[in-house]
Amino acid sequence: MAMTPHRSPWLARARTSWARVLLWLAAAALAPAAAAQTAAAVRAAADQQQAAVLETLKTLVGIESGSRDVEGLTRIAELAAARLLAAGMTVEVLPSRPPGFDPRARGSERGPMVRGTLRGTGERKVLLIAHLDTVYPRGMGEKQPFRVEGDRAYGLGISDDKGGVALVLHTVELLRVLGHTGFAELGVLLNADEEIGSAGSAALLTQLGSEYDAVLSFEGGGVDIDAVRLATSSTASVELRVTGRASHAGANPEGGRNALVELAHQILKTRDYGEPGVGLKINWTIARSGEVGNVIPALAMAHGDVRAENAADLDRLEARLAEAARDRLIPDTTVEMRMRRGRPAFRANAASRALAVHAQAVFGEIGRTLDVRERSAGGGTDAAYAAMRARGGVLEGFGLRGAGSHSNDREYIFVSSIVPRLYLATRMVMDIGAGKVSW
Ligand SMILES: [Zn+2]
């Protein structure tokens, strides 16, 4: 066999792979510099948006949008839709239709939702959610206009959740300014019935949660300390209904079956079924029985308020209540204990935890610390609906720092939280979209 005058293929391969390693080493050495450059560019762009965010907040607060104010909600939805459109998104304004919706029923009408989508060139799909509705009835806003005092910007609904809406709009805008499309898809969903339970938007939120790799929910981001949340509470109620038999209370009491006494028995037995250690609460709040003073009551009902941090705790409580209903004090009475589940609890999965850890790192890029809350403070949010069948992670608390939600003339956000939180949201979209957060 003749000697080849050329380099052996092995040597050529080795040289190529060494070249690759060297290139990789060079890239690795430059990566921190590139990352720092990105951080500086996003930070500078976020800085430039602060005045515009305040202007947006003023505009949003200026449109009253209580959950039942369809006219106000339609106006604020149109404004948000126009902003997303201008930022390059494909936008739809969608009706909110709770299950069993009947347009003839009084008060059943809900405000519209706004959905925006933008295709990109990256790896993962990111969804940003916030709500347009507030708890305040029409007329309250007129007497309490938007105003800035020192570091505080006041306004009805500014912390819950117009600050979140403003941040979503400006995150999309900031990405446009930066010319960044390094995500598979960027989505926005702004709903209009969060404060009344999200019945008209829950199904869509759950569907989108199953389609997007990550959902960032823009409810308040803490009060004095910046935070994100890995848990929110669920709400539920119990309807207790006792059926007995009526009879004359004077002439024939033994002929009756006293529903009121059985109700009292059930309430006393179940009042301690809460488990404070895990955030499970049951509190009886309403009871009704009897109409006439000399009749043994045949009917009695009670209502209990229930809070829990996860579905398993509710299941356990429901089972105990069912068992309690079988053990009766008054023979021949019927006891029905029916639990109605409202908003579910949100519990973080591994992907949500990975998002939280990454959010802390991103916030660290601008020299700030981000608190990650493991326990719910008692409230429920739409993060729970997004997480029900999530294919990836869900994280709550991307809104502005602020306080005074659901109060009168004391609701505000911290102006100094605008730039850091805008930076956080924008950088999270960039890194998740590029596949830099793994779970
Ligand atoms: Zn809210």
What does this structure look like?
With 439 residues, the protein is of the alpha+beta class. The chain has two domains: 34-97 and 110-232 and 345-433, Zn peptidases (Aminopeptidase, 3-Layer(aba) Sandwich), CATH 3.40.630.10; 234-341, Alpha-Beta Plaits. The chain is built from nine helices and 20 strands. It has helices spanning 9-61, 70-86, 158-178, 202-211, 259-270, 311-326, 350-364, 383-387, 418-433; strands spanning 90-94, 113-119, 125-131, 147-149, 152-154, 185-191, 214-217, 227-229, 231-232, 234-243, 247-248, 281-289, 295-296, 299-308, 334-341, 346-347, 371-373, 393-396, 402-403, 412-414. The strands form six sheets. A six-stranded mixed sheet has the order 1-2-6-3-7-18, sandwiched between helices. The protein has a four-stranded antiparallel sheet with strand order 4-5-20-19. The protein has a four-stranded antiparallel sheet with strand order 12-14-10-15, covered by helices on one side. A hairpin with a 2-residue loop joins strand 4 (147-149) and strand 5. The chain is elongated and about 100 Å long. Mean pLDDT is 92; it is low at 1-6. Residues 131, 160-161, 194, 219 line the site of zinc ion.
In short:
This protein has helices at residues 9-61, 70-86, 158-178, 202-211, 259-270, 311-326, 350-364, 383-387, 418-433; strands at 90-94, 113-119, 125-131, 147-149, 152-154, 185-191, 214-217, 227-229, 231-232, 234-243, 247-248, 281-289, 295-296, 299-308, 334-341, 346-347, 371-373, 393-396, 402-403, 412-414. It has nine helices and 20 strands. The protein is 38% helix and 22% strand.
